[in-house]
Amino acid sequence: MSKKIKLELTWIGKDKRPRLEPRILLEDPELSYAAENRVSENDIFDNILIHGDNLLALKALEQDFSGKVKCIFIDPPYNTGSAFEQYDDGLEHSIWLSLMRHRLDLLRSLLSSDGSIWITIDDHEVHYLKIVCDEVFGRDNFVANLVWEKKYAPANDALWFSDNHDHILVYAKDKQSWRPNRLPRTEEQNKHYKNPDNDPRGRWMSDNYTCAKSAKERPNLYYPIINPHTKEEIWPKKTRVWAFSHETHQEHVSENRIYWGKNGTNSTPRLKKFLADLRQKGRVSTTIWPYSEVGHTQDAKREQKALSGLLAGALFATPKPERLLHRVITLATDEGDLVLDSFLGSGTTAAVAHKMRRRWIGIELGRHAMTHCQPRMTAIIKNQDSGGVTEVTDWSGGGGFRFYRLAPSLLEEDKWGNWVINRAYNKEMLAEAMCKLEGFQYDPSSTIFWMHGQSTETDYIYVTTQTLTHEQLQVINAEVGDDRTLLICCSAFRARLEQFPNLTVKKIPASVLSRCEWGKDDYSLNVQTVMGEEPEEFEPESDELLNDSPKRKQNNEGRKHKMQELPLFATIIEGDDK
Fold first, then answer.
1. What is the C-alpha to C-alpha distance for residues 312 and 320, in angstroms, rounded to an integer?
2. Can you give the residue ranges of every domain in the chain?
3. Which residues have a Cβ under 8 Å from the Cβ of 253 and sit 6 or more positions away?
4. Which among 199, 126, 138, 133 has a CA at the least distance from the CA of 163?
5. pLDDT tens digits, residue range 69-85?
6. CA quadruple 91, 94, 95, 101: dihedral positive or negative?
7. Cα–Cα distances in Å, from 564 out to 480, 503, 576?
8. Helices 297-306 and 322-332, interaxial angle, to 10°?
9. CB 326 within 8 A of CB 392
10. How far apart are CA 355 and CA 339, in angstroms?
11. CB distance 114 to 177 below 8 Å
């Protein structure tokens, strides 16, 4: 008898988890772009292009977009040992696994309950990545390993085999409730549909009217049918009866769905299946995607070359064809859904999502965020890109996006080695950063100075660099009243806090020093990211401890409970022990 066993993939540095700082995003208006006028009512303007380390960027998105992304497509470095101009693709194996694990953890938290993630990879790491994805997303949520035929010709100089395919691993957030959309039918599939009897419902083809059941197994399907042309009584074979009950057959007769041949003299009836009905249902995608349907690498390079006059840098080394992304987005989303790519590269995912009228978020660390992605998306909005899937999506321009950069770290070291608030932060940036750190939505009031953000209907936050006196806190406490609570983040305070039951006061930066790895801007492909020592934990002095009043704790319960509901990722793979 089999029993359940536990299997997991281990590697050096797997348990080292970075303590990420949830950065705020700063818009660069000069690189943001939007159409001057609406082209259609469905134009989308709230798209996001982020330049910065993708691990920090994903953390920055977590508060606002957790559980809201319908489709994630990523084309990460394959770890093949090849060096490209835009990035180094030759990491030591364990570092690559940690790089992926950290990002997959965050990507899973961003996926909606009916969302899916699609990851392109080749043979070098696909089997290891599959196990890591099983741990993060759950083995039961694995959907398929798609095979993309990326080349149209064999490499005759290959030493072993010509590498003509890549893999696309597909996982659902919840496989039991997730279903891919159907694909539109092709003309090749439709060519067998004719209309020999000029049926007003259009083209059709006939299908078998019997099934592989015997009269003994299904006696209700063994009955006579009258040929209306010859008046002959037709019985099925006893070893292969009709496929439909007598009641359903009568419906087919009344709907003129029975075909007896050109002259009406066929020995058995056939069922008319109309193309119009099948078009509405679409076709199921297979797990093998030939380049004739979704394009190959040379297509991708030609598409990028056609835009070379608009791009500021060298052509991207490993782009994906637009037809490939069109297939993914068609299967995974509907119009208006949110698509995310955290390894945006040359911008293909954002380009296709925009043309397909989906909302999108793209993250790219390299300079090609500015040299490739930004000008490419601007050209699409201006309707200056006629290639790729422009024609098939009937794209004619419109919409917009905002270009963001990651803010610098909230804290920096002064010349004496002390952590202080970064001088690059103005008061608005500081308030927004503290809201994100404390789990509040940044929403400053235009009339009440101490309302910088809100976590519940009655819980607010106030951020200031002032040293607050007892008298100042007394005034604020009176305005807050008995029915609201307020978290105050300030540089220092001189007060007897027990007199203010609705206020919680914290000093910054002391109260947040232990939260994150401050001053760290790079979590990309390097050994130190995984192997480095963890920073020492900051132990606050007694007067830095929280002054959570009973009333504020009660009003805060919803927010704190929500923050504690971060997803736990199983590292158990179930199998049989034989």
1. 19
2. 28-117+295-406, 187-281, 411-564
3. none
4. 126
5. 999 999 998 776 554 45
6. positive
7. 27, 22, 34
8. 110
9. yes
10. 12
11. yes
Q: Using pLDDT thresholds of 50, 70 and 90, give the confidence band for residue 264.
A: confident
Second CATH level (architecture) for the domain 28-117+295-406: 3-Layer(aba) Sandwich (3.40)
Strands 492-494 and 270-274: unpaired
Residue type, 114: D
The contacts of residue 188 (CB under 8 Å, 6+ apart) are none
Amino acid of residue 403: F
Give residues with Cβ within 8 angstroms of 79, minimum separation 6: 89, 90, 91, 93, 96, 124, 125
The Cβ of residue 524 has, within 10 Å, a number of other Cβ atoms equal to: 17
Q: Measured between alpha carbons, how far is 559 from 63 in angstroms, rounded to an integer?
A: 12
Instruction: Say which amino acid occupies 348.
Output: T
Instruction: Check if the beta carbon of residue 282 is closer than 8 Å to that of residue 184.
Output: yes
pLDDT in tens, 524-545: 754 344 444 333 343 333 333 3
pLDDT, tens digit, 9 for 90 and up, residues 193-222: 888 888 999 999 999 999 999 999 999 999
- Residue 529 CB contacts under 8 Å (≥ 6 apart), including other chains: 18, 95, 98, 99, 522, 523
